[in-house]
Fold this protein.
Amino acid sequence: MNCTLCNHKTTLFSEYQERAFYICNNCETVLLHPNHYLTADEEKGRYDLHSDDVTAIGYQNFVKPITDAVICSFNKTDIGLDFGSGKTEIVKFVLEQKGYQVKGYDPFYFNDLQLLKNKYNYITSCEVIEHLYNPHKVFKQLYDMLLPSGKLFLKTSLYSKDLNFEKWWYKNDPTHVTLYTQKSLEFIKEHFGFKSLEIFDKHIVLSK
Ligand SMILES: [Zn+2]
């Protein structure tokens, strides 16, 4: 398979419980082979099982690195989009509680394509990019939806060579198909033309 992010060739990286992962020879993204992708119904079935209670502190803490980062960088008059908002729209819920204006888009639960034609001061995407079958297309779309000086706030677990891939739980979720490395993010920054990339402990910021 070719890399779904940068289109370079890939090499077989790991076969774990009959799921084959390939690593990109260029950007080092680790990719599940498409033979192992779930169907859309199976994928939604998994998401339907996710948490429901947006008022639960543990659930809010899960998105806190993202919501705090937005609050530090933007004002209540700025307009944001939460891309891949999930059935509960938890990021939108937490930010709205603080008086922020955020739209929620999700291909399974809030598939309002009109929202993808607008421009935003910031976009959040919390535990979403690891689910993308076509990250190149989506990152282009996210870049294009940001206004000048806009920021993209991401949360995902990065793979690095210090981790033991066989034991790394993050790859075991059947909906996690695109596993990023620092090099993947550097590729995204350079290729799409972001001005800066910041990798924090629990979140990532790409600035236009
Ligand atoms: Zn690549």
